[in-house]
Structures are given as C-alpha cells and as structure tokens.
Please model this.
Amino acid sequence: MNDQRENGGFNQRSLKALTDIVGRGYCRSHPIDLELYSYDSSPFIHYPWAVVIPGTVDEMAEVVSLCRRHGWPLTCRGAGTNLSGGAVAHRGGVLMSTTRLNRIVDIDLLEETALVECGVVNLDLQNALAPVGYMFPPDPASQKASTLGGNVAENAGGIKGVKYGITKHHVLGLELILDDGSMVKTGKLKRGLEFNEPDLTGIFLASEGTLALVGRALLKITPLPTSYRTMSAIFDSLFKSGQAVSAIIADGIIPTALEIIDRTLIAALEDYLHLGFPVGAEAMLLIELDGLGPELNAQLARIKDICFKAGAVGIEEAENEEDREKLWLARRSGNGALGRVKPATIVQDVTVPIVHLPKMLSLVLDIAERHRIVIAQMAHAGDGNLHPHILFDPSDGQEYVRCLKASADIFAAALKVGGTITGEHGIGLEKVAFMSDEFTEAELDFMASIKASLDPTGILNPDKVLPKKWQPHGGKGPF
Ligand SMILES: Cc1cc2nc3c(=O)[nH]c(=O)nc-3n(C[C@H](O)[C@H](O)[C@H](O)COP(=O)(O)OP(=O)(O)OC[C@H]3O[C@@H](n4cnc5c(N)ncnc54)[C@H](O)[C@@H]3O)c2cc1C
Model:
C-alpha cells in the first residue's frame, strides 16, 4: 500500500467492500491496472487506489455511497478520452469505470428519444440509430471511443455542432447518482414535471463528474438528412480560410460542418492516409451541407463564390459517398496523424466570436513562433471553436514548459476578444488556474455554492473545475 492509500484509511477491507458490490474481477488494485487507469488523453498522470467497474446503475450508486461513508475521493471515467485531465484520480481514491454500463435501454421513434446507460459509446448509438433513419447529432471526433456519460459530463461538441448544436441541446433528462448514493431523475425522465420545472438537467451538462454521476440519460434523436453536399476549399493563408468561414456564417448559410485544418495537419494526414491532400497548402476548409437537394445546390454555389472571394485557390466537391467518407475520416484522424510530427500533444479548445476567428487563427501562429514550438491547428470553425494542437516531446522538459506558456497565451488571447478558455474539452485540472481570468469572484462563488450543496464533503472528482479556494472546505476534503 502506498502512503496515499494509508492516508485515506484504504486497505484490503476496503477492496473487499468494493468487490462485494461489483463482483469478483471488477474491483482491481494490481499495479498494472492502476497504471492503466492513471491517465486520460491529457498529459496528467495520477494513480487511483482502486478501479471499480460496476455492471449496473444500482451498483454505481452503492459504490458512491460507500465512498461517501468513508470519505474516499471518487472519479468517474467513461473512455478516458478527456483532454484536460478531468478523468484522472488527482487525489487517488476510487476510479469508477463505466464501460460495462453499455446498454441502449430503449429507442422510441414515436417520441424521438433514446434512453441509454452512461457507458454507451457514442458511435454505438449512431450505429443503432442509422438503420432506422435517425442520428444523435453530437458527434465528437472521439466518437468511436467516447461514452455518452462522458459526452454529457463534458457537454461535448462535434463536427455537426455548427448546425445541430452540442450535447446540451440533445439531452432531455438524466438519472443521477448523488454524492450519498441516492438517485434522482431530472427533466423528461421525471414524468409530469418536464415542462414546468427549473432546468435542473442543464446544471449537470459540463459538470465534469464533480456534482453527481450520470447513470442513464434520455437523449433527443433526430432524423438523418436525406442529401449531403461535401467539398473542400484550399487556401494559401490560414487567415483567409478564417475569413471565408466568417463570411459564410455572415451570409446566413448554416452548413452541417465547417472545419479548418492547417498546413501541419494537411501534411501529417497525407503522410498517414495518402488521400491526395495538397501538401504545402496553408489551410483547407472542409464544408458539408445537408437538407433537400435543390436548396443544397444553391447554397453550395453561394459557398463556392464566398470561398473564391476570400482567396481560395482551389475547390473540390466530393463526387460520391466514398469521397465524402475520406474527408471525414481525415478530419477524425487528425489527432492520431499528428503523432508523426511529435509524440505528445496538448489540445486546446478556446472559442471566440466568429468575427474574431481569422485573427485568432493568426494569433496562434504568432504564439507558436514566439515560443519556438509547433502548433497544428484544426477548428470546428463554424462555431468559432479552435483546436490548437500544441505538439511536444515529453523527454524535452524545456519544450514542455514553453508549451504550457503558449497555452496560457492562447487563453489570454481568446479572453481578450470575448471568447472562452474552453468550448468543449472542459476545465479538468488543466485550466483550473485560469478560471479566475474568465469568471468573476461572484460567479465562482455561485458555482462553489452549487458544488457545496451537491457534494458538501468534496469527494466527487476533487480539485477539478473550481480553484482550491472554491472547493468544499478549501479543497481539504475528508481524505
Ligand atoms: C482524438 C480526440 C478527439 C476529440 N474530439 C472531441 C470533439 O470533437 N468534441 C469534444 O467535445 N470533445 C472531443 N474530445 C474530448 C473527449 O472525447 C470528450 O470530452 C468526451 O466527451 C469524453 O468522453 P469519455 O467517455 O472519454 O469521458 P472521460 O474522458 O472518461 O471523462 C470525461 C469527464 O467526464 C466525467 N464522466 C465520465 N462519465 C461520467 C458519468 N457517467 N457521470 C459523471 N461524470 C462522468 C469524468 O469524471 C471526466 O471528468 C476528443 C478527444 C480525443 C482524444
């Protein structure tokens, strides 16, 4: 047992109590298991004392109740694709993996809803819906792995966000497990009250597992569009590609997707996928429209015109489904492809008003140059949501420090133009120190009062989202 565990009064009896709830094999404390669950998709690494993998929502609740009684920190984890250190056990304690809670309980086409357990993978839901002509619009690029519980807890966005909105626009109700293990329903899951109650569901979107755990969610599903038009536009300047995005939105067109990828990413993707991408181009805009055929043709012509006016040097239309799939495969493979440039990445997700998008893209280029690092840029550009991928080699400590300084500069630049430090990846551990830059004392006090009333002992995902001063008991916790 390491010191941390002894401090928490956590011992073999504790492991047995957890095993009694989840069953043999589903409470793990072997060093290899602890290692496996010590990281998410951010650079943060923290070891839990034990990993539990409940098989039902009731078991989840029993584990929460046990943690509360003993004052053990509890971190919930879906697929661990979090990019801001939200899914690591910062204080040790119990790490609860939701991967066995992967049942799609019900798809109701009349009500256009899907009731899911929190561990259902986003793409598994899409695959279940597509044959019946439906989709769940939030489609994070991590959709092959990320869970719907994780999507709710982070309020995930995605490629279709510009037209269809983000996770919060598609959650009708939640079944929640509170810090003492009791279960409550919000929103449409609480029949009869859905139209008049305060929007309690909304509080838990983007709450990052710090207020309650999501057991099940009732999601709004949407009919699949009947036609698509997809194209790419090549630019000799990142700034001009940003101007094209602002102009498309200002024209009143709402594409399904409007994504920018920059020179570094175009080259990395071509190296990885060999799709015939224009290596050497400064930026590529991926554009998709959906809706009814004739209307789409008119919008497409308009977009082409806008792109050429903004300085596009070439435009290519996807001629068939295969071409279209290739473009989206490329966009979804961006993160992995960048592994060819440097072994590790810090992914930022600042979001700015669309009018400032071109300037912000250029500012990120300047920041990379100033700190002598490589930043590859992709963006859910139609939302003003930038994804600067700050690339580094973990064996070069000085480079990492320069990357952290670059992150801080990116946050400051986004806030200066009225943006936010996170559009979709959450605060986690990474951005806690910057919360006071974005929110006033009164706003942080307000958030702290919600945290204190829902998790008074501070066991739920301690140290995340709120700075220490605003954590229950100043972050000291019962541990
Ligand atoms: C390659 C890649 C691409 C990505 N693309 C996008 C993108 O396009 N858009 C986007 O928004 N994000 C994106 N992300 C970030 C990430 O995938 C999302 O935040 C996703 O929603 C996390 O889901 P997860 O199941 O992996 O959750 P985890 O990473 O395991 O957890 C995330 C947070 O949710 C909490 N949590 C998990 N499950 C529950 C639960 N049942 N109840 C309460 N809290 C819970 C955890 O405690 C943690 O704070 C990307 C990440 C990667 C690695």
The longest strand covers residues 227-235. Residues 104-223 form a domain with the Uridine Diphospho-n-acetylenolpyruvylglucosamine Reductase; domain 3 fold (CATH 3.30.465.10). The pocket of flavin-adenine dinucleotide is lined by residues 40-41, 75-83, 86-87, 98, 118, 140-142, 146-147, 149-151, 153-154, 156-158, 208-209, 213-214, 335, 424-425, 461 (CB under 6 Å). Residues 351 and 385 are 4 Å apart (CA to CA).
